[in-house]
Amino acid sequence: MVNINFVPDDYIQNNESCKTNLIYLVLLLAVMIALGGSFVTIKIRQHACSVKEELVNQRMAQTQETMKQLDELQAKRREMMKTALTTAELLEPVPRSILLASLTNNLPGGVSLMDLNLIQKEPKRTSQSSVSKFQATQNNTNNIEEKLSMEKLLETHISIEGVATSDLQVAEYIKRLSVSNLVDNVALVESKEYKVDDSTYRRFKLTAMLKTDVHLSKDDVEGIRGKAEGTVWNF
Fold first, then answer.
1. Does 1 reside within a domain?
2. pLDDT bracket for residue 119 (50, 70, 90)
3. What is the CA radius of gyration of the chain?
4. In what order do the strands lie in the sheet with 183-196?
5. Of 40, 71, 91, at which residue does a domain stop?
6. In this structure, what CATH number is given to the domain that contains residue 194?
7. Where do the DSSP E strands lie in the chain?
8. CA 183 → CA 106, 157, 160, 213, distances in Å?
């Protein structure tokens, strides 16, 4: 039996074309949805990156501020240390160990020290010009390093007591101290004879003053310490 198709060929082709177009539209819609989802995902990630970048920038700004404050503190610390060293230099221009080493280095043979006292006193007559200069400096500057410290106006008096075998040795010690770079105005206060067992000694007392404008270099200090290494004092 022969099958007869009463549907026209044009109708069949149109149906197939509609189906094909519908498939294309569905695929196109799927692609558009995928592209839209990707775009939204990219935007969300960009926003998250922007938020993180802003947080990083804030932390960097805080870190820079902290570093700036740390640098300021370090600068203040250096300034305070410099001021402290300057003040210490004004209060004690010559360390006592160096002064004692110098006094020991100048001892003649047979002479020994028994007592040493350092006393700072105001000079009996302080010149009005020095006081005026100190006051003017205080009024005209706030820099501590440029101020004329009143400690510079103090006089360091030295009292020395020791023993020797003869007055000649005492005189030699006074002579050596008189040409020293550290002390001045060396004077003999007393020299008494006393006996220990069968030996006779001279117990003497000297006074001197530390020179006002003493500035020892590193070589000077090392030289004084080097000479003191052979004595009973270890500096």
1. no
2. confident
3. 48
4. 112-121, 155-164, 199-210, 183-196
5. 91
6. 3.30.70.60
7. 112-121, 155-164, 183-196, 199-210
8. 12, 9, 12, 11
Taking CA atoms, 142 is separated from 129, 146, 153, 165, in Å, by 21, 8, 20, 56
**51-84 residue pLDDT tens:** 888 899 999 988 888 898 888 888 888 888 777 6
Q: How many domains does the chain have?
A: 2
Which residues pair with residue 172 across a beta bridge?
A: none
Residue 234 falls inside a structural domain? no
Q: What's the pLDDT score for residue 13?
A: 73
Last residue of a domain, one of 91, 113, 140: 91
Closest of 150, 145, 223, 151 to residue 182, by C-alpha: 223
Least confident of 1-5, 41-45, 95-99, 222-226: 1-5
- Mean pLDDT of the 44-52 span: 89
Domain that holds residue 179: 96-228
Same domain, 61 and 131: no
Question: Is residue 209 within 8 Å of 158, Cβ to Cβ?
Answer: yes
Instruction: Indicate the pTM of the whole model.
Output: 0.49
